[in-house]
Specification:
three-stranded antiparallel β-sheet, Rossmann fold, six-stranded parallel β-sheet, alpha/beta, 13 helices
Length: about 325
């Protein structure tokens, strides 16, 4: 019977080894990440002491009020003034956390990344199975005609960006406060959580809903928390590590997968290939054997090539 891992008495290296073991014995991992995943790429989080919510907005409004739907509609100039300074980082690059998750996905263990971030760094690192709960600053669209724009277009515009086709306001494809998340994204996230045999929650304070409630859909307690500060899930998790997400994941996800692990990962494919190869060899052997039993074809005489044999001659020839 599985016992709960000691979360408080073990030293950092013990916890790193425990996470390595959990990853090694799991084949359907789901990762839920927040702003703390991208801080090592130079993108600030929201709620820490140096986070966006606790620094000056540069306007007369609070940051948390600016990134709301009604504020965007009523004060687009102030919204974009803040947005361009505080929320878009086009030069940010994936860090060790993003790269470790790519390795874990390529090893066939990580089945989904559920991210609350809007920075596109998971995709830039190479991850394929990404569910973006809050959208992306790299996607933008005209609110009137729907034309799509990239982040470079937004950054290059003075003040509020307008569509170059119809003149409408261009807005980022992100979920603001007072707006609903895409139902499909939420449904896909919950489905992934229900199937997983290990859930790693990292870089999030677990105070933003509905992501904060996803763990309730688990049918087990195999949860790992990696976060600098405490969360409400710390006491419920199998393992809690208060540290940098990138440092922890980089140590716990192997750089290379062994041949033995690769063979274990996809035995059915290997068996199918072997069967096909064996079948091909058998087929070739039968064909070769049959060909060796056949008598060599007789070379037709010059006379036969000039004049076809009569039907009577053919019958006599077949009897002989």
């Amino acid at each position: 019977m599985e016992t709960r891992i000691d979360r408080f008495g073990s030293v950092r290296e013990d916890k790193i080894n425990q996470l390595k073991e959990l990853i090694a014995e799991s084949n359907n991992i789901v990762f839920l990440g927040g702003a703390g995943v991208s801080t090592e790429s130079g993108i600030p989080d929201f709620r820490s002491g140096a986070g966006i919510y606790n620094t000056e907005s540069g306007t007369k409004y609070r940051p948390i009020d600016i990134i709301a739907h009604d504020f965007f509609i009523e004060h687009p100039e102030d919204f974009y003034d803040f947005y361009k300074r505080k929320l878009i980082y086009p030069d940010a690059r994936p860090n060790k956390a993003h790269k470790a998750l790519v390795r874990l996905e390529r090893q066939g263990k990580l089945k989904a990344i559920i991210t609350q971030n809007i920075d596109n760094l998971h995709q830039e690192a190479g991850s394929k199975c990404v569910i973006e709960l809050h959208g992306s600053v790299f996607r933008n669209y005209c609110m009137d005609c729907g034309k799509k724009f990239n982040i470079e277009y937004i950054a290059a515009q003075e003040g509020v960006p307008h569509c170059d086709r119809c003149g409408g306001i261009v807005r980022p494809d992100i979920v603001l406060y007072e707006e609903n998340l895409e139902h499909e994204n939420v449904d896909n996230a919950i489905k992934a959580v229900k199937k997983c045999d290990l859930m790693i929650i990292a870089g999030t304070s677990l105070t933003v809903y509905p992501a904060a409630t996803f763990a309730q859909f688990l049918k087990h307690d195999r949860i790992v928390i990696i976060n600098k500060s405490s969360t409400y899930m710390d006491l419920k998790a199998l393992l809690t590590i208060h540290d940098n997400v990138g440092d922890v994941l980089d140590k716990c996800v192997p750089k290379r997968i062994s041949r033995k692990a690769a063979a274990t990962k996809s035995p059915s494919r290997k068996t199918t290939t072997t069967k096909k190869t064996t079948a091909k060899k058998s087929s070739d052997a039968v064909a070769k054997s049959t060909a060796s039993k056949k008598a060599p074809a007789k070379k037709p005489s010059a006379a036969a090539s000039k004049k076809p044999a009569s039907s009577k001659a053919k019958k006599d020839e077949s009897k002989s």
